[in-house]
What does this fold into?
Amino acid sequence: QVQLVESGGGLVQAGGSLRLSCAASGRTFSSRAMGWFRQAPGKEREFVAAIRGSGGATYYTDSVKGRFTISRDNAKNTVYLEMNSVKPEDTAVYYCAANKGGPFLFSRVVRSTSYDYWGQGTQVTVSS
It folds into this structure.
């Protein structure tokens, strides 16, 4: 069983920065890839970024490449999403999720169905 709690969301001006955190419980954290997804009003949940269990390898959706950075601290059971140069279109509820396991491939981690634990979400609003 893994419990995930996101924090760090809020209101930020376009061009600003925000760091989201996701604290995880459970002994399997370091063995699991972790992902960030987001869902804007009226839109489907979409993949943002993922990081391998041991860290190092990462994937990003094209719209956030060069602006967002995913990282993790396995000693603290926490995964982060550093958001820089934010845009109004980044406004959404952001969710962290723990991957079920398997090869760390983009084709897998981009699918929400490859994750079995989700946080409650944290709202990020970017004003123009």
